[in-house]
Amino acid sequence: MKKLELEGRLNLIKYRILDYTTDDSGNIDCFLDVFGDYVIYNEDRGKYYYWTGLLWHEDKGKKIELWVQTAMRMRRDLTLKKLKKLDDDDLSRRLEAHAKGCCNMRSIKAVLEGAKAQLSHSDKLFDRKPYLLNVLNGIIDLRDGSLRSHNRK
């Protein structure tokens, strides 16, 4: 994901930050708002994939986990910043406790596990159109030889 695009998504969640619930589902929603277009979960293979800009790449390392951590740090930092403007002490305490806890490994693992259902695709997603060939500078339509731009859909 490009830095400029990440900054745009950060602006999106800035306005929604207090709308997320203070539980795992709120963490999942925040992660999906930031990175959801760039991640899929292949239910047949039991693996996460991320979009490189050219193709879907199996996450053999911890890239998606790092993205979850990034989203949770964004959530924590933005929430703590917004708390200063709230008048409700009880709500502020609850939000602060959640914000501080959303970056722990239990929360990260819960997001990774919980997001699978919303990001789930089968092997059928890949190679649905066998006449399209992915190459470095685009996608060639083998029926007519035309070159298309890369597309994660």
Could you explain the architecture of this structure?
The protein is of the alpha+beta class and 153 residues long. It contains five helices and seven strands. The protein has helices at 3-16, 24-35, 63-83, 89-101, 105-119, and strands spanning 39-42, 47-51, 56-58, 120-121, 132-135, 138-141, 147-148. The strands form two sheets. Strands 3-2-1-4 form a four-stranded mixed beta sheet. A three-stranded antiparallel beta sheet has the order 5-6-7, with no helix packed on it. β1 (39-42) and β2 form a beta hairpin.
List the SSEs and their pairings.
Layout: H1 3-16, H2 24-35, E1 39-42, E2 47-51, E3 56-58, H3 63-83, H4 89-101, H5 105-119, E4 120-121, E5 132-135, E6 138-141, E7 147-148
Parallel strand pairs: 1-4
Antiparallel strand pairs: 1-2, 2-3, 5-6, 6-7
